[in-house]
UniProtKB/TrEMBL annotation:
SMART domains: IG (SM00409), IGv (SM00406). It comes from Salmo trutta (Brown trout). The chain crosses the membrane at residues 17-41. This is V-set domain-containing T-cell activation inhibitor 1-like. One of its GO terms (biological process) is regulation of cytokine production. Keywords: Disulfide bond, Glycoprotein, Immunoglobulin domain, Membrane, Signal, Transmembrane, Transmembrane helix. The lineage of its organism: Eukaryota, Metazoa, Chordata, Craniata, Vertebrata.
Length: 287
């Protein structure tokens, strides 16, 4: 999960694996030592250890989902071996995107360098400048667009730390449904979904209700609006509407309370962070 190179971090990984079965601490320490030697050897043989750098560059959210038109943070952090603050005049941060030759954002020795910035990102990107010295190289990307989808690389170089972390941004659109009831028909309407979702209704016991009908409408930007109606409903009851596409699942509940057309609703979004669990580990990028 960690791209870059840092023998300290790799050692912790080995300890994590062996601690739960530490019946014999002597054997464990032999394994750890052997593992450490192998890791140090492989790191230096891979060529990445040249320069003798310490520290690590990583992302705490490698699979963010951006909501079209809103802002998203591409997470990137760096940690020096001493955990001390870096002087920002010695920090260089370059964000690039796979397939683009120009940079997304570049910060070098205390100054923003945007002469070679790709026009797609003009005026839409920012670093958290106050937090750079503390190891925060995260990028704020404003007004997310469909074309922002893709793999980003955050390369950090300081006197005591250097490496690259990747972040895989997926772009979706999602908005909460509004419920309406007229007599025994309950409808859910949502304005912005992308990719096109499917809609399922459940009763209070989580049984799927098949007396529903959903109409989808496209707007000009390829975003889907839909209205889904469920009929007949009971005068007192709770209904769950599930809207999902491969990236986002929204679970919303409407509670019908008597013949007066009032109800309560609550909802939450579940962002599907991993398109495919196997992709999580295979995310490296040659520096
Ligand atoms: C640092 O990075 C995280 C994302 O990784 C972000 O949420 C946060 O606001 C940033 N800024 C500070 C001051 O920590
Ligand atoms: C940059 O963004 C600001 C605020 O979002 C806006 O007022 C300004 O016109 C933009 N400038 C360019 C060159 O797009
Ligand atoms: C709702 O029910 C009332 C009374 O039964 C009826 O008059 C009205 O037309 C119904 N409304 C709709 C939209 O079906
Ligand atoms: C759902 O549809 C199936 C056939 O498509 C039907 O047999 C079944 O009775 C329906 N369930 C309800 C609760 O209406
Ligand atoms: C909406 O657009 C998509 C792709 O642009 C298309 O496949 C789909 O048939 C359209 N749906 C409607 C209801 O127009
Ligand atoms: C609805 O969409 C989800 C996510 O894309 C998918 O896993 C599920 O199979 C779909 N259900 C139906 C009935 O199409």
């Amino acid at each position: 999960l960690i791209i870059g190179y840092c023998d300290v971090q790799l050692t912790w990984k080995v300890l994590d694996i062996f601690t739960p079965i530490s019946i014999c601490s002597l054997i464990v320490s032999i394994f750890v030592t052997a593992g450490l030697i192998i890791l140090i050897l492989s790191v230096s043989l891979s060529g990445q250890g040249l320069g003798g750098s310490k520290g690590t560059v990583y992302s705490i959210d490698k699979w963010p989902i951006g909501n079209l038109g809103e802002d998203v943070i591409l997470s990137c952090k760096f940690k020096t071996s001493t955990n001390s603050r870096e002087s920002t005049s010695q920090v260089s941060i370059t964000w690039t995107k796979e397939g683009l030759s120009e940079v997304v954002y570049k910060y070098d020795k205390g100054a923003v360098q945007l002469t070679k910035q790709n026009p797609q990102f003009k005026n839409r990107t920012l670093l958290f400048s106050d937090a750079i010295g503390g190891g925060n190289a995260s990028l704020l990307l404003r007004d997310v667009k469909v074309g922002d989808n893709g793999v980003y690389y955050c390369s950090v170089s300081t006197p005591s730390c250097s490496g690259t972390a990747s972040v895989n941004l997926r772009v979706a659109a999602f908005s909460a449904p509004k419920f309406k009831r007229v007599n025994t028909t309950l409808t859910a309407e949502a304005e912005r979904w992308f990719p096109k979702p499917n809609v399922t209704w459940l009763d209070v016991n989580d049984n799927v209700l098949n007396e529903s009908e959903t109409s989808f409408f496209n707007n000009s930007a390829g975003i889907t609006r839909f209205i889904s109606s469920l009929q007949p409903i009971k005068l007192y009851g709770s209904y769950t509407c599930i809207i999902q596409n491969p990236l986002v699942k929204a679970v919303s509940q409407a509670t019908v309370k008597g013949p007066v057309n009032t109800f309560q609703r609550k909802y939450n979004f579940i962002l599907r962070k991993y398109l495919d669990e196997n992709c999580m580990l295979d995310n490296s990028h040659p520096v």
